[in-house]
Amino acid sequence: MRQVQNFIDGQFTGSASGRRFDKIAPVDGTVIASISEAGAAEVDAAVLAGRAALKGEWGRLTTDQRCDLLHGVADEITRRFDDFVAAEMADTGQPHHVMTHAFIPRGAANFKVFADVVKNVPTESFVLPTPDGAGAINYGLRRPKGVIAVIAPWNAPFLLMTWKVGPAMACGNAVVVKPSEETPLTTTLLGEVMNTVGIPKGVFNVVHGFGPGSAGELLTRHRGVDAITFTGETGTGTAIMKAAAEGIRDVSFELGGKNAGIVFADADFDKAVDGIFRSAFLNTGQVCLGTERVYVQRPIFERFVAALKAKVEGVNFGRPETKGTDYGPLISAEHKRKVLSYYRKAVEEGATVVTGGGVPDMPADLAGGHWVQPTIWTGLPETATVVREEIFGPCCHIRPFDTEAEVIALANANDYGLSTTIWTTNLSCAHRMAAAIEVGIVWVNSWFLRDLRTAFGGSKMSGIGREGGVHSLEFYTETSNVCIKL
Ligand code: NAD
Ligand code: 6OD
Q1: Chain centroid, CA 486 distance in Å
Q2: Which of 97, 185, 202, 381 lies at 20 to 30 Å from 49 by C-alpha?
Q3: pLDDT digits (tens, 9 = 90+) for 435-453
Q4: 158 — phi, psi (to 5°)?
Q5: Is 22 helix (H, G, I), strand (E, B) or coil?
Q6: Is the overall model pTM greater than 0.85, yes or no?
Q7: Where is 297: in which H helix or E strand?
């Protein structure tokens, strides 16, 4: 069985306590790795290694030198593409094509794109008139913030972790990453890549473990951490924000969502069905940007529900590496219990189950996996639990609407505000809707299509701050103003 260690100051290391935990394969429930759990000693060592790196060779590199190294990291990820794909498939159980088309290439791109952004963004400068007529020049001087704690979730582990580590390192920071306890493998592999490429020791560190009372909490409470970037549940964000309050540390939060998909009667019907199918069921519905509330304009409602049902009933369950598999398991037994409890709640509250609602029959070798059926409901009021709360599973509720004003009100009547996907051929309607929906990311006739240079983040309870392109620089650097009297 694979033994997974922490990665501190360029070395793979166990933990002083000797504590370990198992990684269970989502596809069949077998133990595939034993992970060393970091305690206070390892978290402290990782943070101190980061602080030392800032004062050492890493801190003295020019921006160009640093960014060349990050291009090297991207190239090495690409060279070891198959290792990353295999590790991420083992951790998540998600299909091969999801890894090869999206999650792993995007991980490599996160290093290249942010290196290029950092090299090409000027700082501001102003000439200030002074009474003596000579003037003063003001200019902004960007510095790395210091040691950044990166707390990552399990649903797209490599993509979401590198999306923070790439810009943090490009800006000259050191990082300590706490990957999810459910998905330790690709972050650990990245440690090997950092050593191969020659990233100075201590710049990239990994501590494994859980949240409360474990590596996650120890890291976010550590006063040697200058800022915390977190992706995960809104409730966890609340706990981390309290930890960050001690020492007034900055946070960047990408949190939960209960996103609306809106389909107008004038939409290209087949594209809309395909789009909502992807947004609700890709990655077994475990995508923060996913669509668990679907609103379809009344003239096409029945036809749309029937078409989506047919697509959902055609998915191929299976092992990630098996050709033709397009649907995987949920991440864990705990998450399966949570999703199935929502499936039961939907029925108790009066849902019509269009399809799914339970556990599929699986062949014997996969019977121990965390499988649930993709599920569609109709007929619930907006007050129903499954219409209000984030489930993070392969399910959606579909409701008819009549007017633009009505669907705007429905979409906005939720505490979350992460994303929305709108399907229409009416450009004016698309513009009006985009301006009216209270979310950080609006897609029109598309979903999960993203240029890394654009702002990414959530409104309301879906997050704090924006990352992406130059927006990432706002979080990962601090600007001092230099004023020179001429
Ligand atoms: P989670 O909040 O349970 O865990 C995320 C990470 O936080 C894990 O590494 C966990 O160990 C750690 N953690 C938990 N408690 C902690 C604590 N008290 N202190 C420090 N660290 C702690 O989330 P998850 O279940 O891994 O991921 C699913 C959630 O993430 C969903 O709500 C989803 O919407 C959200 N998400 C949001 C985005 C986004 O961009 N907005 C992207 C992906 C996932
Ligand atoms: O596109 C991204 O960079 C991003 N952060 C995606 C988030 C996916 C959430 O599950």
Answers
A1: 48
A2: 185
A3: 999 999 999 999 999 999 9
A4: -75, -45
A5: strand
A6: yes
A7: strand 291-297
